[in-house]
Amino acid sequence: MTPFYELKPGANYLRFIGLPWQYRAHSDLVIKGDPSYGQRVMCLADMGDFVAEDRSNGCFLCRDNSSGSRWILPLIKDDQVFLIDIGYGVFSQLRFLARHMFWNDPTNYLIDIDFEFNYETMKTITRVTPCIIKPLSDEEMKLKTNFDEKILSQLTEPPNQAYRDKLQDKGYHNPVKDVC
């Protein structure tokens, strides 16, 4: 399994090697017993069926917990392939660069995702900055060629019945609400 990359405070120089794959998740919920970073509680509503105003969209979790779009992208960092799970803030900045007449495709250049946590406001601040435009090195090209995109499909596909049953049996919790 390809590991997830966790943004470190400060500069994170990353080289994306593929397009973002979208899915819906409940960001405030955590799967019980799942220690891995990047794993989210998937929204049980199908992407095509989701209507933001209708909280009864086939997902029993949506009645009490908000859900939102998230994206998973493959990247290279320190000569290793990782996946990164991003929210709308980072995605919208990457999309802006992709639509920019000079920068275009984010896989053509190094990107710095500057990450910091503001303890006064208790909010995360991320800035996405394009860096050097250069082709992939031979080693990076091998890593990209050997990366299997099926993993992205598996991570973003709608939940199956076993997953639904696990959640129905309270296989999740809200760490904030559990502490308060």
Compact overview of the structure:
With 180 residues, the protein is α+β, with helices and mostly antiparallel strands. It is built from 5 helices and 9 strands, in the order ββββββαββαααβα.
Walk me through this protein's architecture.
This protein is an alpha+beta fold. It has one domain (13-147). Helix content is 23%, strand content 30%. The chain is built from 5 helices and 9 strands, in the order E-E-E-E-E-E-H-E-E-H-H-H-E-H. The protein has helices at residues 88-99, 138-146, 150-156, 161-168, 175-179; strands at 13-16, 21-26, 30-31, 41-42, 68-77, 80-86, 109-118, 123-133, 172-173. The strands form 2 sheets. Strands 1, 2, 4, 5, 6, 7 and 8 form a 7-stranded antiparallel β-sheet that branches. Strands 3-9 form a two-stranded antiparallel sheet. The longest helix has 12 residues, at 88-99. The protein starts with 12 loop residues before the first strand and ends with a helix.
